[in-house]
Amino acid sequence: MNEPRRSSSLHGGPHPGKTPGATRKGSETRARIIKGALEALENGGMEALTTRKIAASAGVRLATLHYYFDNKESLLLAVLEDLIADMDLAYREIPHSSNPEERVAALIRSMWRYVQRTRNKQIAQIELTIYALRTQGAEWLAARQYNAYIDFYGRLVFSPDEAENAEKSRIGRAVARQMLIGIDGLILQNYALRDDAASEGVEALILATQVYLRRLLANS
Amino acid sequence: MNEPRRSSSLHGGPHPGKTPGATRKGSETRARIIKGALEALENGGMEALTTRKIAASAGVRLATLHYYFDNKESLLLAVLEDLIADMDLAYREIPHSSNPEERVAALIRSMWRYVQRTRNKQIAQIELTIYALRTQGAEWLAARQYNAYIDFYGRLVFSPDEAENAEKSRIGRAVARQMLIGIDGLILQNYALRDDAASEGVEALILATQVYLRRLLANS
DNA sequence: GTCTATAGCATGATAGAC
DNA sequence: GTCTATCATGCTATAGAC
Prior knowledge:
The structure is a homodimer.
Chain A: H1 4-7, H2 24-44, H3 51-58, H4 62-68, H5 72-90, H6 100-117, H7 119-134, H8 139-157, H9 166-193, H10 198-218
Helix pairs in contact in A: 2-3, 2-5, 2-7, 5-7, 5-8, 6-10, 7-8, 8-9, 9-10
The structure holds a DNA duplex.
């Protein structure tokens, strides 16, 4: 709705006419700050996340941080944007089977492997998503994040040539939503209980998603 | 493990020999502060949650808050404890069917109705859980919260007489875990996408849980 | 048990030299 | 584009009267 009001602060800088990050050196620094913010967030959580810690974690002076970002808020939203952009790089294990049910199983297992390697990152991402949802004018970012995931995984449910089909694309997206629901729930529960009985949860999720997929295909 | 180190600060006060909240009036105030903290958290989120806002939201002076709680941390953990204690009061729609699969369906629908009525509370609870997990010495609280839910729902999967059976109790708990995974994931996705296509997700979750339950019963 | 007042400090953000 | 120095504010927490 009134989205543009704040979205401007997401990219540009406060300096009229100037554009921090336009030069090569500048954009490298900008990227380092974003990376530092993510690291600090992963280690300490939202509540302890201060601009000073971010600067330290990025190896940058506090003032430099404010040269690249209007304020803390726009930096945090930039971190979330960055996570979205890097998503496809993280999960590059594309399933090779042509059977959609096998693809779903491979996909979920691959996601879960990645999630386990990057526990803190996953929690950080959830914290950032909630932060965006509570930040007036940034709710759309959270939605975009989810849609990006749904899109990405939805495509991978079927083999590339099948994915062109409109109906299969629709089904793929629906399946992706269910996969993401399960993964998010698993992340929270596994993180809280700290047990590895989560592997049973993963297998159950695979089965459930396959059943769901089969049902959607039958009804189409 | 080293759980007792901080758990003491969860209940008592800092005043040696004294016990804030021992009198009737005192415990009412304590409860009001906890309620105010939850309200403030639901409205503004973790990042904006200050002791001042909590005090205002509770209709209490800032100093009064510190009379009842050692510090902000112990207050926040007390809020999470309170949420656990109130859980059974919130979901009092006990399914009446004797068929476990029907009970699961009724349970999930009832949970989801409640979740929809209390969106912000659910997000607040997730934020608190993550907070506890990041707070040294309070991780056990997050685990206890999950276990309380698993216990509570696990019991409701079978009718009261069946629930005594050890094997059914085990199965009930496993099913409850899967239900919670789905609900948590649904909360996040529904909150982020703000669509009501979540109802499809709920139906899919019911089906998946029923399939899972059936499989566990067959293998037992 | 609740109040007013305030200490003591960390925070986000800016000014201005280089 | 990065630095040092600093501001103004709001924070958690405490002191002490009532």
